[in-house]
Every structure is written in structure tokens, then in C-alpha cells.
């Protein structure tokens, strides 16, 4: 393989700078929580920010690419089953750990983590580094995000429902704040898609700034409601242990299960990375709409899992990059596909973008 196409892999495990920004926002909410008129203003701004986020998601997502990619239906069906079936089953099984390792509130957050869609950027980045099927990772992540707009709220209603204070009004808010803006973005994509593509950096700042506002509002409400008195260091340690087991189980299942199903190496890599991860960017605004004042505890497991998956998947991707590749597969060489993926990582800095998803 051409040496210049080999991606430079990080010498250290990534500490997501955006996670640090989120933690700083949490600290600000703890020290200076919004209350009274300020809380109402922050809540209104947060509602608008969530609607803007999903409008931009809709405007940026190419539905045609997702539909075209569904021709590889076995691969994408496997990823969808892992994301919206296997993950939720494991989240439900974790209910047996209450009250020994988890509080009911933390278990609800863990179950919510299991219901959100997969990532897009990090699935692509790690698949590229590991020399896997990059186009499949692109479509799998995009389709999961698209499906999650509808599937995640429905699963929350079915599996969490009233036990977490999620009412029918929450689903009216889901339609108003998430689904309608997303559909509006899809409708106008043909006119503004080019503009969005030319201003990715600026819009990325809007995305991240909006999510920080959502985090501040959610954690302010949690501080005012006193929900953080329910979390102790021992409970946090228990949550981390449970999440480590959850991630290990999904990484093993996606890799060995895809092998048993007869997928080629490149497809197995795409399934492993797209089927084992969860999107912080999609989960945070959904939680703010669904859980209200309890959103801070609901997103804590997702925030911890996000950083954990980045560190573990970096190690796995580096190891997979050293695997010997088969010389020829049907309709071309897998080596050629791998080099294309590696070149894309070098050109776009995909690994850097992965930590933001």
C-alpha cells in the first residue's frame, strides 16, 4: 500500500475537547443555574436551538444517498438491529442492577443511551482508519440518524414512558421541535444544501453552540430541582463499570456476529463501528425535549459512554489498520477501497471531527 496514504494515528487516546466544553457548561450551570425569568429565557432559547439543530440536520442529510445505500440491505439491517433492538434489550437487562449498582434514575439514563441512534462522523472516521468499507459506514450512520428521529421517541414511549415523567405532551413537542424542523430542512435542502456545504465550519460552531445551550438549560433545571443529590461517587463508579461491559458486549457482538453472518472484513469493520456507538449530538437535544428537568441525569450516561467509545474505538481502529488485507474481493480489491478511506482521513481530518458527533 502506498505509504503516503497511511493515516497518521494519534499517539494518545483522544480526550474529546467538546466533552471538556460540555463539562465546563455543566460546571457553569452548577455554579450559576438559571432561575426565574432567566430560566424561562434560557428555556425559550434552548427550544429554538433544538429546532435549529434539527433543521440543519435535515438540510445537510442527503436522503438520496441513504436510499441508494440501502441496496446493501443486509449490512444496514444488521446495524439498525444492533442500534434499535440489541442495545435496548441490554439496557432493559441492566434494570436488574437496580438498586445494587444503579439508581432508578441512572438506569433510565442508561436505557435512554441504548435508544439513541448511531453516530455518523466517528463511524466514518474509525472505519476509514481501520481500512474498512467507508461508503457503508457513511450510509449506515446517516440512515441510523434519519431513523432515530422517529424510532427513538417511540422506543422511549414504549420502554420508559411515564416512569420517567415522559408524557404524551412530550411527543407533541418531539413533532414540533424535532420532526417538523427536520422535514423542513429536507424540503429546502435543494436550495440551501450548497450554502451549507460551503460554510461547514461556521455551521459546526452553530451546532456545538446550540448543544451547549441545551446542556446549560437542562443542567440548570436539574440543579434547581435538586436532582444531583441523588448521585454519589459510588453510583458513578457503578455506572462506568456497567457502561464498560455494555460497550465490550456490543463491540464483540458486532464483530463476531458479522463474521458469522458471512460479511467480508471491510463490512465487518463498518458494522462494528456503526453498530456499537451512540450519538451525543442527537441524544442531548432529544433528552432535553423528552425529560425536561430530569434531562441532566438522563444524558449523564450518554456523555460518559461517548468518551469511552472514542477511547476504546481508537485502540481497535489502530489494531485493525495493521491487519493483513485480502488481495482481491468481488468487483475490485479491498486494498484499493482501504486506501481510498485512508486518503479521505488524511484529507479531511475525519478523526478530529469524530469527537464532535
UniProtKB/TrEMBL annotation:
GO cellular component terms, A-Z: plasma membrane
Gene3D superfamilies, alphabetized: 1.20.1530.20
Keyword Calcium belongs to the record: no
Keywords for this protein: Membrane, Transmembrane, Transmembrane helix
A Pfam family the protein falls into: SBF_like
Keyword Protein biosynthesis belongs to the record: no
Segments passing through the bilayer: 12-32, 38-57, 78-102, 108-130, 137-164, 170-188, 209-231, 237-258, 279-304
Entries under InterPro entries matching the protein: Na+/solute_symporter_sf, Put_Na-Bile_cotransptr
Name recorded for this polypeptide: Bile acid:sodium symporter
Species this protein is from: Streptomyces liangshanensis
Amino acid at each position: 500500500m502506498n505509504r503516503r496514504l497511511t493515516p497518521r494515528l494519534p499517539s494518545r487516546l483522544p480526550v474529546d475537547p467538546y466533552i471538556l466544553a460540555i463539562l465546563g457548561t455543566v460546571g457553569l450551570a452548577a455554579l450559576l443555574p438559571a432561575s426565574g425569568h432567566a430560566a424561562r429565557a434560557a428555556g425559550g432559547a434552548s427550544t429554538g436551538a433544538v429546532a435549529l439543530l434539527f433543521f440543519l440536520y435535515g438540510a445537510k442529510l442527503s436522503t438520496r444517498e441513504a436510499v441508494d445505500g440501502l441496496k446493501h440491505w443486509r449490512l444496514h439491517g444488521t446495524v439498525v438491529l444492533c442500534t434499535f433492538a440489541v442495545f435496548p434489550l441490554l439496557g432493559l437487562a441492566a434494570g436488574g442492577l437496580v438498586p445494587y449498582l444503579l439508581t432508578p434514575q441512572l438506569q433510565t439514563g442508561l436505557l435512554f443511551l441504548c435508544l439513541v441512534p448511531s453516530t455518523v462522523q466517528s463511524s466514518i472516521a474509525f472505519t476509514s482508519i481501520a481500512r474498512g468499507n467507508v461508503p457503508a459506514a457513511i450510509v449506515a450512520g446517516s440512515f441510523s440518524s434519519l431513523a432515530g428521529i422517529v424510532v427513538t421517541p417511540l422506543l422511549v414511549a414504549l420502554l420508559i414512558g411515564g416512569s420517567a415523567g415522559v408524557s404524551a405532551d412530550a411527543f407533541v413537542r418531539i413533532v414540533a421541535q424535532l420532526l417538523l424542523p427536520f422535514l423542513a430542512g429536507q424540503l429546502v435542502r435543494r436550495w440551501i444544501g450548497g450554502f451549507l456545504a460551503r460554510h461547514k465550519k461556521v455551521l459546526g460552531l452553530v451546532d456545538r453552540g446550540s448543544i451547549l445551550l441545551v446542556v446549560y438549560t437542562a443542567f440548570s433545571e436539574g440543579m434547581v430541582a435538586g436532582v444531583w443529590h441523588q448521585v454519589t461517587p459510588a453510583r458513578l463508579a457503578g455506572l462506568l463499570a456497567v457502561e464498560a461491559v455494555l460497550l465490550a458486549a456490543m463491540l464483540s457482538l458486532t464483530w463476531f456476529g458479522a463474521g458469522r453472518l458471512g460479511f467480508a472484513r471491510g463490512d465487518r469493520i463498518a458494522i462494528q463501528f456503526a453498530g456499537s456507538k451512540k450519538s451525543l449530538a442527537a441524544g442531548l437535544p432529544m433528552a432535553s425535549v423528552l425529560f425536561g428537568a430530569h434531562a441532566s441525569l438522563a444524558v449523564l450516561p450518554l456523555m460518559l459512554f461517548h468518551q469511552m467509545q472514542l477511547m476504546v474505538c481508537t485502540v481497535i481502529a489502530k489494531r485493525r489498520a495493521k491487519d493483513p488485507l485480502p488481495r482481491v474481493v468481488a468487483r475490485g480489491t479491498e486494498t484499493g477501497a482501504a486506501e481510498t478511506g485512508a486518503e479521505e482521513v488524511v484529507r479531511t481530518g475525519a478523526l478530529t471531527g469524530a469527537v464532535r458527533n
